[in-house]
Amino acid sequence: MTFMTVTDVHIPPAQASGRTITPVILSGGTGTRLWPVSRASHPKQFWALTSERTMIGETLRRATGENFAPPIVVCNNEHRFLVAESLRESGCEDGRIILEPAARNTAAAIAAAALLAAREDPDTLLWIMAADASFRHPERLAAALEKGAQAARENYIVTFGIRPDAPETGYGYIRTGAPLHPDGGVMDAHRVACFVEKPDRLRATEMLKDGGYLWNAGMFMAPASLLLAELARHEPAVLECVRAALAHSQSDLTFRRLDAAAFLRCPSVSIDYAVMERTDRAVVIPADLGWSHVSNWNSLWELGDKDARGNVVAGDVVLEQSHNCYVRSEGMLTVVAGLTDVALVVTSDAVLAIHRDYAQDVSALVAQLKASRRPEADIHNRCYRPWGFYEGLIQGERFQVKRIVVYPGQKLSLQKHFHRAEHWVVVSGTAVVTRDDEKLLLQENESVYLPLGCMHRLENPGRIPLTLIEVQSGPYLGEDDIVRFEDTYGRQ
């Protein structure tokens, strides 16, 4: 797959009129329609699907730099280290991370970010966006943001509407109303006439012909103080619960952990319903950004660079007499012959084959897997941790084999197990192993045995990743058979 190049864009200075621009990135989705790559344990925003960077990495690239205040990312607890690593890779270690104890939709997430930002500057302009959107024309973003900032400084809540180029049924729509300034002023800004839920094909075709409808990109800009005032006016319960959750929040390493008891009382409601559909301060700015929510495999086929027969491929793929297919392999050789209009996605533990016209139905398949209690519905074979990752290789009765990779300078918790013993064999790199009162230095091709019940820890003191093979044996091999005594990352 040939990756699209994201052009560096210049955003107008954040403090051009005395108000900063604070990016707010919502990273709570799981992207089930992109299963089996996107799963709850490692959703689509943390995958490189549209370029060489992860989707959240591309988002941070657009939203960090001297022209912006440090971004605020709202995510769930499980993904906190993935988000922290994304910020680090983007050169944005000063970004703030808010941890939601449970999903409560976008109104609560945005309220938390607005309250946090308003502590420093109530008039900062919040630029709110999803972590997993794609832009084919990022070079046009600067002009759209400048228009949005002009309207937001006039105390409006701006939404950016994308000019549709197809009768898309997977997006909501915005009907444009009268110009905000008929005699000039903010160019292209219009009142919002109404929001339209995801339409069927016939209705979407009619709206495309009408020309007065835009895709709802879920991207907003507004003063923090105005957003909070409109939440207080239209959904006071959301604001009250989130305010209490932030007031009783705890600082955990680089994270702001919202109080669970208060946050769980919060109504689950979208920002569209909570504010945008009810406020009289909503305006929309049309934008030709080549935006896509990348909501399913057909979206990736539409975005991708196609060969002479209309195919988009990623990974180790060989095609023969196939047309208009999307084929992705996350490792193993995948050979396809004689297929048309198919999406085929291969991972280490699952394969999805679906006609592209049915790409929206993948979430229903995931629901079936969950109902059958299949772990593949939510969990990848490769599991990421703050210190690196591990992946299962072989599993049998009373044993399993894993590959463990520890990043340079990182270490696992000091721990023990009640039901299993372990053998570690170093494949590459250097390991420091704590085993009860011993400290062992292991090099390539050296091994250590960790008997059941011993206190142990693994560290990588080197400058290259440490890779080892772990063989577990015992009557119970579940990940919950672990007692931590000390952990660098604050895990229990």
How would you describe this structure to a colleague?
- There is one protein chain.
- By secondary structure, the chain is α/β, with parallel strands linked by helices.
- It folds into 3 domains: 21-292, Spore Coat Polysaccharide Biosynthesis Protein SpsA, Chain A; 305-371, no CATH class; 382-486, Sandwich (Jelly Rolls), CATH 2.60.120.
- The protein is built from 11 helices and 30 strands.
- A 6-stranded antiparallel beta sheet has the order 20-21-22-29-24-27, with no helix packed on it. Strands 6-9-7-8-12 form a 5-stranded mixed beta barrel.
- It starts with 20 loop residues before the first strand and ends in a 6-residue tail after the last strand.
